[in-house]
Design brief:
eight-stranded mixed sheet, binds calcium ion, membrane, CD209-like_CTLD
Length: 178
């Protein structure tokens, strides 16, 4: 019981709020469990739905925006270390303008044509179906090998993707499904 509870509570509850509150919630949970073992499921569920510190919730996923810039591969590795992936943007995300509140800069997403030029794939190996390229993109600008994709806030909200050189350094957007 404690093993199930503690990882979620430590990650999702204790860190984002003052320590005393976290301890309080842990102790309340243990008290509840002692007298009402059936509370385990609801406590675990509640803990799972609380966003980890630094993450934003939007439309069924948590998103993390880096405050520093890295290459596409280093950004991808960073997301992996956070138990997430570089963001996979589907139609449902960008058809809702709420996502614009989250996206406020140029940042890597998990789309690349590194394996085969012109064949775009998400980092989970799914092919690109719905796309939101900015006008004229993807373009391998001036003959450069542009194989990785950024969302560029300075373009229009709906169509704001640009293929960029993977070694360039930008912020990045990690996504973790609930
Ligand atoms: Ca390319
Ligand atoms: Ca480009």
């Amino acid at each position: 019981v404690v093993l199930c509870l503690l990882p979620h509570l430590i990650i999702s509850v204790v860190l984002p709020i003052p320590l005393l509150s976290g301890i309080y919630i842990v102790s309340v949970s243990l008290h509840l469990l002692w007298h009402h073992p059936s509370a385990l499921l609801s406590v675990c569920t509640l803990a799972l739905y609380l966003p980890p510190p630094g993450w934003l919730y939007f439309n069924g996923s948590f998103y993390y925006i880096s405050s520093i810039a890295k290459s596409w591969q280093d950004s991808r590795d960073d997301c992996s270390q956070r138990g997430a992936v570089l963001a996979i943007i589907s139609m449902k995300h960008l058809s809702k303008t709420n996502m614009c509140d989250i996206i406020s800069m140029v940042m890597w997403i998990g789309l690349t044509d590194r394996e085969t030029e012109g064949v775009w794939k998400w980092v989970d190996e799914t092919p690109l179906t719905a796309s939101f390229w900015y006008s004229g993109e993807p373009n391998n600008f001036k003959g450069r090998n542009e194989d990785c994709v950024v969302i560029n806030h300075y373009y229009s909200n709906e169509n704001n993707w640009n293929d960029a050189v993977c070694e360039n350094e930008y912020s990045w957007l990690c996504e973790k499904h609930m």
